[in-house]
């Protein structure tokens, strides 16, 4: 009986650790602030400025699918509203698109259909969870990101291992 209690407690702790990890590690941002705010009426520059985006966070683009779309592109194309030669077409077709922010860098998004000229564009500056000291250069912040990922994977492996021992 005691052993069963112990197993239950360990299971509870494992679940809590996983849940806390998820909450701490990623956040879903509704682009523009709501589920329907990927549209030219919203000042996306202002919205983006007041947000904190971290690696492993997600973006949600909600919009009228008949009008707008979502393209990821580079800075030059973003500034000039040039959709051709985009990096990724995120448009799914239903007006409900998600995008994972995988790296610490600035991502650029615009809408196709000429709406970029009306202001339907946004730059998303992504940082590491734990900001590296100012003296770190970008190559070092890259390795910090790798370390973070390796660390998470390791934790998962250990949990799976413990799980295997306890619940054979
Ligand atoms: C959006 O907000 C920014 C910062 O408040 C401001 O500088 C900019 O002019 C605004 N853009 C539009 C299109 O209103
Ligand atoms: C940005 O993308 C455009 C279109 O693919 C390309 O022509 C341009 O060289 C790119 N600019 C940079 C700085 O990578
Ligand atoms: C992006 O993908 C959508 C859905 O597949 C498509 O309708 C649209 O034409 C694509 N946009 C570009 C610029 O290729």
Automatic annotation (TrEMBL):
GO cellular component assignments: plasma membrane
Signal peptide start-end: 1-26
Keywords: Disulfide bond, Glycoprotein, Membrane, Signal, Transmembrane, Transmembrane helix
Record's keyword annotation contains Zinc-finger: no
MF annotations from Gene Ontology: electron transfer activity
Domain (Phytocyanin): residue spans on this chain: 27-128
PROSITE patterns for this protein: PHYTOCYANIN
Family in the record: Belongs to the early nodulin-like (ENODL) family.
Protein purpose: May act as a carbohydrate transporter.
Record's protein name: Phytocyanin domain-containing protein
Originating organism: Lupinus angustifolius
């Amino acid at each position: 009986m005691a052993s069963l209690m112990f197993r239950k407690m360990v299971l509870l702790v494992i679940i809590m650790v996983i849940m806390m990890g998820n909450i701490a590690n990623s956040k879903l941002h509704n682009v523009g602030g709501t589920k329907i705010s990927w549209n030219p009426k919203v000042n996306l520059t202002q919205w983006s400025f007041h947000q904190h985006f971290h690696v492993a966070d997600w973006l949600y683009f909600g919009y009228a699918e008949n009008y707008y779309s979502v393209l990821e592109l580079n800075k030059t194309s973003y500034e000039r509203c040039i959709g051709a030669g985009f990096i990724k077409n995120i448009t799914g077709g239903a007006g409900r698109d998600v995008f994972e922010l995988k790296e610490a860098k600035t991502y650029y998004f615009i809408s196709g259909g000429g709406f970029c000229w009306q202001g339907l564009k946004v730059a998303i500056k992504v940082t590491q969870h734990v900001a590296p000291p100012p003296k770190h250069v970008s190559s070092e912040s890259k390795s910090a990101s790798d370390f973070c990922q390796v660390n998470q994977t390791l934790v998962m492996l250990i949990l799976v291992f413990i799980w295997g021992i306890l619940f054979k």
